[in-house]
Amino acid sequence: MKIAILGGGHGAYAAAADLSESGHAVRLWRRDTAAVRALSADSRIALRDAAGRREVAIELATSDIGAAMRDAELVLIPTPATAQDDIADAMAPHLVDAQVVFLPPGSFGSFAMAQRVRAAGNHADVAWAETGTLPYLARKHGQSEVNITARAVRLPTGVYPARDAERALAMIRRAYPCVHGCGDALSGALMNAGPVIHPPLMVMNAAPLQHFEAWDIHSEGTQPAVRAVTDRLDHERIAVREALGYGAPHYPLADHYDSDRWMYGDVHRQLQQSGDWREHIDLHRHRYITEDTVMGLALLASVARFARVDAPIAHGLLAIVGGFLGRDLRHGARTLEVLGLAQLSAAQLRRRLHDGQ
What we know:
The chain is an alpha/beta fold. It has helices at residues 10-21, 33-40, 65-69, 84-91, 109-119, 165-175, 185-189, 194-204, 206-211, 224-243, 254-258, 268-274, 287-290, 292-307, 312-325, 346-355, and strands spanning 2-6, 25-29, 44-49, 52-57, 60-62, 74-76, 100-103, 127-131, 136-140, 145-151, 155-160, 179-184.
């Protein structure tokens, strides 16, 4: 299958190497021309995982998004949600009928990017999909090497518009057989693990994060008090899903820590032992704040308001982060209010997400 991968982060490099090794024709786009030159000399990425280290050739590394997307059946965007507006603007002239765009994860970007592309004048019949996490726990090492600690074994995925779910899921499964449908795009967004895992870790580790040069929030930062708050926040997420009529499995986050039933299976110990998550984290600029809190947690809180679900942990964490950022996060770009959906009834929202624009 011809796959365009848009982005230059950990997930993009992991996907480029992994999917190329699986036999797909992969074209990797990133806007950083110097980084592209480092790859395009021989178009190889060094992939390290449990099987060892090997060099994997990809079809193309380019800073020309049109070249990357030309004839692509699947467009994969494993980037932070904060980059989605710019990427939507860049890709809008190149999207064509029958393409599937997959955001792992999306922070409701499947809906937001579709609206932005349409506003740019592109009305192609494109299906947008998003899932609850990256297909990989991965970290880049330098400009052309990536380490994959684990691969997802279950990827619950929502589609916008939901009427295109069968076509979109069939396409994505050719790359990721572990994908399964979970309903519409909002259901997919409410599977996103980042806004549940990361805000409590950031808020409750704020002092050591600012004191130490490097801190592993998944090892010494994940203590019983943090876990208790994370579990309560996840209960709120599941209550919101149930209030909107989304069925199980909800992938409770407790399974990530305590069983093999979560999206990555039993992987938390591997994550801790890898050492790849011992890093410097800036409380103002790290994606755990800019993406998972300012966008993802704000979305969850807004959907809780819409569904009339009491969510004190979500709103409390959002208020604390807003306190040290110096702004009110209840009116963020991914809230239902700003996206123009809060005024709809529940039935109208379901219909909009099913039918599309």
